[in-house]
Specification:
- The chain is α/β, with parallel strands linked by helices and about 280 residues long.
- About 40% of the residues lie in helices and about 15% in strands.
- A seven-stranded mixed beta sheet has the order 3-2-1-4-5-7-6, sandwiched between helices.
- Helix 2 crosses helix 3, helix 2 packs across helix 4 and helix 3 crosses helix 6.
- It is globular and about 45 Å long.
- The model has no long low-confidence stretch (mean pLDDT about 90).
């Protein structure tokens, strides 16, 4: 573990677990995405956590989520002409390097200072340019506090439409913080802005089928705190209109990686996950 990794909060280390899952997928001949730098940023910590959490449904979800968000992000940038992208709690994501970005795109990566330092250190150890190219700007913030000034100082323009990506974030925040964060994103969004992200269900947090995994997360200092069974109602209440909502395993959110049956929305009392695309609510 590098010196910068040692300074990371426990919840930040889950980003390395995600990177480890992406690394293994990228090394498959039938991979559904290619993240050649994932192994570098996963570090030993990421692969140790991947082994610790083995057997949960979250690992295949990470793969499906990555591909869903990749596709939705590329589509929004190309079809809508969005040139301002903000990765909220970017973690060890390497889209800045592995996706092809049109000229004029600026990607802001928001995350805790210790995580961004660790990411740069891990990449540097592998001889990778940590700047991420002219389109990447790392912005050290605490998303549970006031962070807008730091984003503005990095060059963010609230008058321009924004593509927000909130991946693997909302589980770890209390509901009041989730609502406040979504409201802040809405306030910073010009017309035409888009939000991509994922959520778990409230049922997941109490269902016995998920108890073992959730207990391990809590032991590691990464408890899941928020879920909603109706994101199509929750998101509009926070200023965002849902334009696409999928469970992993459904058409457009499978990619040959989801191994479980998809529970119909009419079935109650079962844990489930959601992937969504939303737009700024105008009415």
């Amino acid at each position: 573990m590098t010196s910068a990794e040692m300074q990371m909060e426990p919840v930040s280390r889950t980003a390395q677990w995600t990177a480890a899952a992406r690394a293994l997928e990228s090394e498959r001949p039938d991979r559904i995405f290619d993240d050649p730098l994932a192994r570098a940023v996963a570090g030993d910590t990421g692969f140790a956590l991947l082994e610790r959490y083995r057997g949960s449904a979250v690992a295949p979800f990470v793969l499906v989520r990555t591909r869903y968000l990749d596709d939705a992000l590329v589509r929004a940038v190309r079809e809508r002409g969005l040139r301002q992208v903000v990765s909220v709690a970017a973690g060890m994501d390497m889209r800045s390097a592995r996706l092809t970005w049109p000229d004029g795109v600026t990607l802001y990566e928001l995350d805790r200072p210790a995580l961004l330092d660790a990411k740069a250190e891990l990449l540097a150890e592998h001889g990778v340019d940590t700047s991420g190219g002219p389109h990447r700007r790392a912005v050290a913030v605490d998303l549970a506090e006031q962070w807008q000034d730091e984003l503005h100082a990095a060059g963010f323009d609230p008058e321009q439409p924004t593509l927000w990506v909130a991946e693997g974030l909302f589980f770890f925040l209390p509901e009041d913080v989730v609502r406040r964060l979504l409201g802040t994103l809405r306030e910073l969004s010009a017309p035409g802005s888009v939000l991509l992200g994922d959520m778990t269900s409230r049922t997941t947090l109490t269902n016995p089928l998920a108890r073992g995994f959730l207990d391990i997360l809590a032991e590691d200092g990464n408890p899941w705190l928020f879920g909603t069974d109706t994101p199509e109602e929750f998101l509009p209440d926070c200023g965002w209109s849902v334009t696409d909502l999928k469970q992993p395993g459904e058409d457009g959110a499978d990619f040959g990686r989801w191994p479980h049956p998809v529970p119909p929305r009419t079935m109650t009392g079962v844990p489930r996950s959601f992937l969504f695309t939303a737009e700024v609510r105008t009415a």
